[in-house]
Structure formats: C-alpha cells, structure tokens
Design brief:
The complex is a heterodimer of chains A (357) and B (369). In chain A, 28% of the residues lie in helices and 22% in strands. Chain A has 357 residues and is α+β, with helices and mostly antiparallel strands. In chain A, the strands form three sheets. In chain A, strands 8-10-7-11-9-12-13 form a seven-stranded mixed beta sheet. The longest helix of chain A has 17 residues, at 106-122. Chain B is an alpha/beta fold and 369 residues long. Chain B is 36% helix and 17% strand. Chain B has helices at 2-19, 30-38, 64-74, 112-121, 138-150, 165-174, 187-193, 199-205, 216-232, 251-260, 290-293, 309-313, 337-340, 345-352; strands at 23-27, 49-53, 79-83, 106-108, 126-133, 156-162, 182-185, 209-211, 237-239, 261-268, 272-281. In chain B, strands 2-1-7-8-9 form a five-stranded parallel beta sheet. Chain B is globular, with a radius of gyration of 21 Å. Chain B starts with a helix and ends in a 17-residue tail after the last helix. The interface between A and B is large, with 27 and 54 residues.
Chain lengths: 357, 369
C-alpha cells in the first residue's frame, strides 16, 4: 500500500478528483481484490446460477466503532449476510458505501477496511461495488457504513410467516444479549469494566447447514409430511438484532397471528450479561444480538435441527426455548418465568434507559 | 427453590383463611415493582393476595413543578442539564427533555460523578445535576457537592429532588381510607438507612414491615413472612435480606447525607405536601443549590387532568382503572410519571400486566404446583 499524503480524511477525498482516486486505488482496492470490483464500473455485473434472488440493505452507525468481539466493519458485513442467510439464501455479493466525517483518521479507516475484507473473505462474499462520500465535520459521527447484499435462493427452500403453525418449536442458536450489553458497557458515559464480548458473526454457514443438511433422507416416511414445501422442517428464521429476542418473537407472533410461549429457564444467557443488564435495569430479552438466529421448526424436526446447530461452532449453546401456540384472544408472546410465573413479553419501546436506584 | 416457594404460599393461604378477606401488601420500591412483574410473581400468588405498588419509583414521585423547573433551565443557553436517563421522558407542561428543542442542553449521566465531570469539561456552562432518588442516591449527590466545594468548581450545582421513604409511608398510613395491610420494604434503601428505620411504622401503625431483596424467591418469602405476621396478629420488623442489610445501615453514607442535606417539607406527585420528606442542601452549600442560584421557589402545580397517578401510588387503584391508561397514556406517550419510568407502576403493568386483564385469568393455573 502506497504511503498516504494525509493522515486524516479531507472533504476532497469524496470529491471525485485526484484525492478520491488515490483513496480508492491505495486504500480500498487492495483490500477487496476481485475481478468485478477491479473494473471500477458504475455497476457490478454478476452472473448468477439462480434467477430467484434475495436483496437487502442495512446501515451501520454503531458507537463505539471498535468493541470487544468486533467493529463497525465486521458488523456491516455480518449483519447484511445474516439478513440474506436467515431468509433462506446463500449470500453472493455485497455493495459497500462509506460516509466519512472530515478529519477521520486514515489509520482507523484502514483498520475498518481490513476488518470488512476479512469478514467478507471468510464468508466467500465479495464486495463488488461501492461508494464513498465525505461530509463536513459534525455532519456525521466519524463513519457510517451501508452495505447492500444479494443472495441466491437455496434450492427447494421456502421460508415464511405463512408456514408457521401451532405446535412448532422455537430454537435459538446460543446466548442472548451479548452484543447489546457489550456495546453499552463500552459506550461513553456508561463504560464499565467487563469481559463482555459481542457475538457478532455471520450465520450463513449455520443456516445453510440447517437448510441443506439431508435430514429428510434419514427421516421415516411417516414424518415426511412435515417437509412438504418446507426445508428440513425449518419454517421461518430471523436474526434478533435491535429490540432483541422480544422484538423478533413479537414480530413473528403478529405476522403469523399465533401466540408464542417461551421458557425463561431454557433461554441461554451468560451470567455476566445477565448481571450487566440487571445492574442497568434492562430486560435481557430486549437487548440486541448480532450472531443469533431464531428458527421456527416443525415439532418432528426440532431435535434434528437442534443437533445440527449444536455441531456448528455458532450453535454450540443452541436450545429449544419454546413453542408456537394457538392464540386465545390476541396474539401474544408469553414468558414462563423460572419461578413458574407468567408474563407477557411486549414489543420493546426502542430505547432502553438505565434506571436510577 | 420450589419447596421454599410452596412454604411461602402456605403462609399466604393461611393468612387469607384467617383474615377471611383480601390482603393488600404494598411494595415501596420501584425495583421490587419491576421484579414482581418481570418474574410473573402475581400469577403465582393466592387469589386473596393483592400487591400494591407504592411510591417507590424516584421518577414517579417527582412533582410536575420540579420537571417544569428542569425544562426552564434546559432552555437557558448558559446551562447544561445532567440527568439520570429515566427523567428525560417525564412530561412537563410543554413536553419532555427528550422531545424539546432544548434537548441538546440535556446530557444523560449514570452517576453524580459523571455530572461533576461534565462541569469540569464545560467551564463556560453551568451544569445543573438533576438530583433525584431516595436515600440510595442521596449519598452520591452529597459526595460530589463536597467535591465541588473542595475543588472550587463553581459552575456546578444540583436541583435536589431527593426524597425520604419513611415519611411517605407515614403519610400513606395517615390517610383514613388507605387499605394497606403490610409493607415489603425496599432493599436498596435499607442498605443505607438500615431496617431499624422502619421500626416506627410497626410501632405507630401496627403494620408488618419486611425488608427483602430483589430475587423472586426473596420477594415471595418476604410476602410469606408478612402473611405469617398477619396470621399471628403480631406485626414485626424483620429483614430477610440479611446478606446486605443491617439494622443500623451504612452509617458512613448516613453521615455524609447529614453533612450536606437537611429534611424539609416537599411535594410528592399524587400525595401532595409531606412533612420532612425531602432533602434540601444545607445553607453551607447554598452556592451549589440550583434553587437558590437561579432563585426558583418550587410551587405546586395542577396535575395533568384525568391522571390518577396519585391514587396508583397510594395503592387505591390499579393502573387500568385510570381513564387515561392505555388510551392517551402509554409508555410511548406517557402522561403521568408512573408510565414514564420502566419502574413505574403503570409502565410495568402495561408491559407485563395485561395477562390478568385479557381473559387469561381462568387459564392461569398456579404453575408452581
């Protein structure tokens, strides 16, 4: 990489001229070498095997930019891959847009780009197109990233809210709240010492295993009915990011018009995460995750799906946490607490506020 | 664990049988309120046991005029408001700190130390720390006031809204139509003031006072103990939160409160004026008193029309009985402060309490057995 004339981003780095050209050639391209991007065309041309394509986008404004277990770059790749993966597709390519505040250090930018590059390589997903904008100091907070991604539909896989029926089991692939509590613990003004670590990870490997694994071959014919038009018994998946498990389950309940019952004792939570949430008065069900998926699966396939998860590095602590049940009045998510009590899990407000005493 | 829960339930059932009527137990701590809801404790209790959420949330008991004062100060260009997170959603007459244009002058802090640091970092602004909470947060406020004096940080002051728990309990029991059979006393506050501080409630009003921690088992056993006393007809003072609460409490913390503050009459939302129930800065620290610095005299203002937070706090009604509840008053658009705080009785009810009102009751068997 050629030595840079500047150690901070100037407005001119987004101005379409010489500085931008240098930024692209000496900082961006070396990280993301691939034939499509190297053409620097206005659009990326992709040859896809399938004509059924999933398309998604997400923006990343996380504070702090670097946190235990990841950074904004890794998050921007994994988050968009996950949106493609849980929909039942194989992520193929990403577009990357950077909005950078004037004065942002090149050193940090390179660190973030390295991280983006690593995460995309690990997941075999190329960055095939992109954009850079610079904004005046104060108009953005250091750096904002947008990624958009496309994925090819997995053959024979068909997921959707409409597949969900009463009796289906709910699986989560591991502990909840890790990402959100890590970010909060490292945020200015709240900072506390902890060994919390974000669960930020790309789930495409796990979802492909879940959907492609030939469970159906091993299953007795009698249970084959559960596989009609579905994928190894997996009916729906979603990654419980902002709003946590509570938001995701409420979305599922609302969209399917079915109720959900989960058991507190079966929901995996790291003791440190639980303690940090309790200290701030947060409900861990509302806290964000970045490497988790909720899978709604048929009761017949639940144990097979669980063991597929458990064999995968990102699913070692997977658990069946509850069931989809018939709605009695209005669709609700109910939690059976550890002491045997019951309560409704509501859609979170959108911003958790620390409590006082 | 379940054996202990069953034992507590037996004590509750015995009390219901003995008294032959509904038993009302009040918790006077917001953290208890939330723990009761989060753990679904109400659904495990015998029919005859009713839990009342008393004035235990520091935001709930803050008077409207206090919030209006903060809003006024937030509008000043020379002020920065440092506040605990819960306060920012509390509606005053012209909006809340979260929605007002003046929000840019408002910083959420997690500790009084952070507020003082804000003053050090912004020497051209006067930092006003919104000092609310019971005896639990008062020592932390006192510490920074003393620090500000020692280090000569003149651009720092506090707007004390600190309140005292025991005078409020006395006020509730002095109401002639109250229906409180016993108190589940606050764990955090008791760490500071010691459980001995509740002795006067037992002696003067003959009501059981049991200090419990925040684990669901502690709460259930605390309720069981109150019921045991009701059955025996002998109200007592007792702490089952023995790991951290002593009879005398934290005398160092008490001393530092006494050094900086003195009790004064004060306004509580819904309860009105209560004698010697708030903490104001002693004259020695007058330069750090925002009321004096900005020449503010707190006057009671009319509560929002229709809002029944007062009765909720007094344990006279449950939140759904209020006309505004769930209609014009929700956690998204709170009218009364009980809806604002995550600890507030109405917010907790809204979030977790619907089950008892949506026709689920009949299916809601006692799962613990």
């Amino acid at each position: 990489m050629k030595a840079n004339r500047h150690d901070r981003i100037l407005l001119a780095h987004g101005g379409g001229g010489q500085l931008m050209d240098e930024l692209i050639r000496y900082h961006i391209l070396p990280h993301f070498k691939n034939d499509i991007l190297s053409e620097l065309a206005d659009s990326a041309k992709l040859e896809l095997a399938s004509n059924s394509v999933y398309f998604t986008t997400d923006s990343y404004v996380v504070k702090p930019l670097f946190f235990n277990g990841g950074d904004i770059g890794k998050l921007a790749v994994c988050g968009t891959i996950n949106d493609l993966a849980v929909a039942g597709s194989r992520p193929v390519a990403l577009a990357l847009s950077l909005i950078i505040e004037e004065g942002f250090e090149f050193e940090l930018l390179d660190k973030i780009l390295t991280s983006i590059s690593q995460a995309s390589k690990q997941n075999n997903v190329n960055i095939v197109t992109g954009d850079i904008k610079t904004v005046e100091s104060g108009a953005a907070d250091k750096i904002f990233i947008n990624t958009a991604g496309i994925g090819e539909k997995l053959v024979g896989v068909d997921l959707g809210f409409n597949k969900i029926t009463a009796g289906d089991k709910i699986i989560i692939n591991g502990t909840i709240g890790d990402h959100g509590m890590t970010i909060i613990s490292q945020r200015e003004g709240i900072k506390f010492q902890s060994q919390l670590q974000s669960d930020c990870a790309a789930l495409a490997g796990l979802t492909c295993k879940l959907l492609e694994n030939p469970v159906r071959n091993k299953m007795p014919i009698a249970s084959a009915s559960c596989l009609t038009g579905i994928s190894n018994g997996v009916k729906f998946m979603r990654d419980p990011t902002r709003g946590g498990l509570a938001a995701t389950l409420n979305e599922i309940s609302r969209a399917s018009a079915l109720s959900i019952e989960i058991r507190e004792a079966d929901i995996p939570v790291k003791p440190m995460v639980q303690a940090a949430a309790a200290m701030l008065g947060f409900d861990v069900l509302n806290i964000a995750n970045e490497g988790k998926l909720v899978a709604i699966v048929s009761p017949e396939s639940a144990n097979d799906c669980l063991s597929i998860c458990k064999k995968h590095p990102l699913g070692k602590e997977a658990r069946i946490i509850g069931e989809v049940i018939q709605t009695r009045d209005v669709p609700v998510v109910e939690l059976i607490t550890k002491i045997g009590g019951r309560r409704i899990v509501q859609m979170p407000y959108g911003r958790e506020l620390p409590r006082i005493c | 664990m379940f054996e202990r829960i069953y034992k507590a339930q037996d004590l509750m059932n015995a009390a219901c049988k003995k008294l032959g009527r509904q038993i009302n137990i009040m918790e006077v701590c917001g953290t208890h309120t939330v723990a009761i809801f989060r753990n679904g404790i109400k659904s495990t209790l015998p029919e005859g046991i009713k839990l009342l959420s008393g004035p235990g949330c520091p935001v709930c008991v803050t008077s409207q005029s206090y919030i209006d004062t903060i809003l006024q100060l937030a509008n000043r260009d020379d002020c920065l408001i440092a506040t605990y997170g819960d306060m920012i959603r509390v509606p005053g007459k012209g909006g809340s700190l979260e929605t007002k244009q003046s929000a840019k002058n408002v910083k959420v802090v997690l500790s009084s130390e952070d507020a003082l640091q804000l003053a050090k970092d912004n020497p051209d602004k006067i930092v006003v720390f919104v000092a609310v909470g019971f005896e639990t947060t008062a020592p932390a406020t006192a510490v920074v006031v003393k620090e500000a004096e020692r280090e000569n940080i003149n651009n720092f002051c506090i707007l004390s809204g600190h309140k005292l728990v025991v005078p409020a309990m006395r006020a509730l029991l002095s109401e002639k139509n109250h229906n409180i059979d016993g108190f589940l006393c606050p764990g955090h506050v008791s760490v500071i003031i010691g459980y001995g501080a509740f002795a006067e409630i037992v002696e003067d009003f003959g009501r059981p006072c049991v200090v419990a921690g925040f684990e669901p088992l502690q709460i259930i056993e605390g309720l069981g103990e109150i019921c045991r006393q009701l059955t025996s007809g002998k109200p007592e003072l007792k702490s089952i939160y023995t790991a951290v609460v002593t009879k005398k409490g934290n005398t160092t913390a008490q001393k530092i409160i006494d050094e900086c503050f003195e009790p004064a009459d004060g306004y509580w939302r819904g309860l009105g004026k209560i004698k010697k129930s708030t903490l104001i800065l002693k004259d020695k620290y007058r330069e750090f008193d925002a009321f004096k610095r900005f020449n503010i005299t707190e006057t009671p203002t009319e509560e929002t029309s229709g809002c029944r937070c007062g009765e909720v706090l007094c344990g006279l009604i449950e939140p759904p009985r209020c006309e505004l509840y769930e209609k014009s008053c929700t956690p998204q658009m709170p009218v009364g402060p009980c809806m604002v705080s995550s600890e507030g009785a109405c917010a907790a009810w809204f979030k977790y309490g619907r089950i008892s009102r949506a026709g689920f009751k009949s299916n809601e068997s006692k799962q613990t057995r």
